[in-house]
Amino acid sequence: MMDHNQSAIRNIGIVAHVDAGKTTTTEHILYESGRIRSLGRVDAGTAQTDWLDIERERGISVRAASTAFQWKGCTVNLIDTPGHVDFSSEVERSLRILDGAILIVSAVEGVQAHTETLWRALEALKIPTLIVINKMDRVGANPTGVLKELNRFLSGGIVPVQRYSGTEEDFRSVLRLWNRRGDGTVARAADDLQEDYDALLERLAEQDEALLDDYVGGMPVSDERLIDSLTELTRQGKVQPLLYSAAGKGIGIPELMDAIVELLPAPAGRAEDPLSGIVFRLERDKAMGKIAMVRLYGGRIVNRDVIRNYTLGTDEKVTQIRKIHAGHQEDVGVLEAGDIAGVCGLSRVRIGDIIGSPDAVSPEHRLTEPLLTVQVSPAQAADYPQLVAALQELTEEDPLLDLQWHPLERELHMKIIGPIQLEVLTHVLQSRFGLSAAFGKPTVIYKETPSAEGYGFVAYTMPKPCWAILKFRIEPGERGSGLSYSSVVKPERLLPGYQNEVARRV
Ligand code: GDP
C-alpha cells in the first residue's frame, strides 16, 4: 500500500470578492509550488508566444474543481469555490467540504459586501481562515484602514502575523515573524520584532487562558509557545491570522503557502474507518465521462473497487481515480481518507451523493438540495414590491434558490437548504438592497429516495437551529405536500434505526 500521511494533507479554498486577486493568487501559488512551468497573466491581450500552452495549463489548474500542489512536505488540495458568492446554496455546499480557507481582501477596495457575506458563511461553518490583504502595491493601498474595517465588520479575532515594508510602489516585501525549523522548533525571524510579538501575545492571551495567566503573572512566554498557541487557536477558528501580499508580483506568496501548511488544520478521519465520503462536484471529460469529485472522510477507494452510493442505493465499479496537478491529470489509483480526487466510473452519481456510509459525514454535509420552505415578508409592508424584485434578482444568480410568489395572498415562499442561507440572505437583502426581511418558521419538504423504504428529510427548529436527517414512513395521500417539522417527528413513524438519531440531534 502507498504511504499515506493524513497529517500532511490540507484541503483549502480561496474566497474573495470579485477582483480582489483570487485568480492571480492561485496562479502564483501554483507557479511557486513548481507545478506550472510558466506563468500566465490574468489580464487579457498579453501576447506571448506560448500563450496557448499557458492558457491551457492554467485554464485546467486554476479553474479545476480541485488542484493539488506540494509544499514543504504537504499535499495541498486547492478546492475551487463558485464565483457567485452573493447568495448561493452552492457556495454553502462547496465551503462545507473545506478544512481551511483563505479570504482575500483588496488593500484598495477594502471590505466589500461580498467579503462580509463570505466571512459570515465561513464563521457559521467554523472554517479556520487566513486573511490576506492583497494589492499592497496598488496606488491607493491602505492596509491600516482595511485592517480597521476588517476588525469592525468581520468581528473575528484578526491577528497580524507579518510585518510589511512600504505600500503602493514602495511595497517590497513581507516579513514573517517566525520560521519553523525542520525539527519543529520555532526561531524568531529577526531580532527587532519585540513589538510584534508583544502585540501577538496580547491578542492570543484574550483567547488562551493559560497564556493569559502567564502574561498577567509576568512569566516569560517562549516564541515556540506563542506560535503553538497561534496555530491551535487558528485551527479552532478562534483567531484569523492576517497576511499581506502583492499577488501580481508574487510578493507574499511563499509566506502565504507556509502559513497554509503551518497554521491550517489537517483533515480528520482514518483509512481504517468505514468508507464514507461525499460528492461535491461533477466534472465531465470527453474520454472519461462523468468524474465525481469526492471528498473522502473515512476509508479508502482503490481502482476497480465496487463502491456503494448510499444516497441512490446502488453499487458501481470505480474505473480510475484522477487527480489534477496543475496542468495535468493523472490516474493515482487510490483515494485515502482525508483526501480529495475525481472518481470515474460512477455513471449515475449526482452532486451531494454519499459514498459508502454516511457515518463520517456530518448531517449538514449531507444536504444537497432545498428541503425547506420558508415564508418571507418585508419588515415594512410597503416594501413588498422591492422585496419581490430583490429576491427575483437573487434567484437568477442562484439556480437552487426557488421563489414562489402568490400575489393574491401577498405571500412569498422560498426554498432553502440551511440556516446559514437565511443568515446570509438577511445580510445581503440589507446591504445590497437596503431591505429588512422577516422569515417565518421553516417547513420541511420531504424528498423521496428511490431505493430506500422510507423518505429522507431534514428537520430544522427555531429559534435554535438543529438538524436531523431521518427516514420515515409516508402515509398515503401525503405525497407531494409539505409537512411541518413538528408533525413529522412522530416516533412511531420513524423507521428503525432513526429514533436514536432524532434523540441525539433534535
Ligand atoms: P479575481 O476576480 O479575484 O480572481 O481577481 P484577479 O486575480 O483576476 O485580479 C483582478 C485584477 O487585479 C487583475 O487585473 C490582476 O492583474 C490585478 N491584480 C491582482 N492582484 C494584484 C496585486 O497584488 N497587485 C496589483 N497591482 N494588481 C493585482
Automatic annotation (TrEMBL):
One function term, GO molecular function aspect: translation elongation factor activity
Segments forming domain Tr-type G: 7-268
Keyword Transmembrane helix part of the UniProt annotation: no
Signal peptide residue numbers: none
Keyword terms of this UniProt record: Elongation factor, GTP-binding, Nucleotide-binding, Protein biosynthesis
Name of the protein described by the UniProt record: Elongation factor G
Species, as recorded: Paenibacillus konkukensis
Taxonomy of the source species: Bacteria, Bacillati, Bacillota, Bacilli, Bacillales
Residues of the full protein shown: 1 to 506 of 672
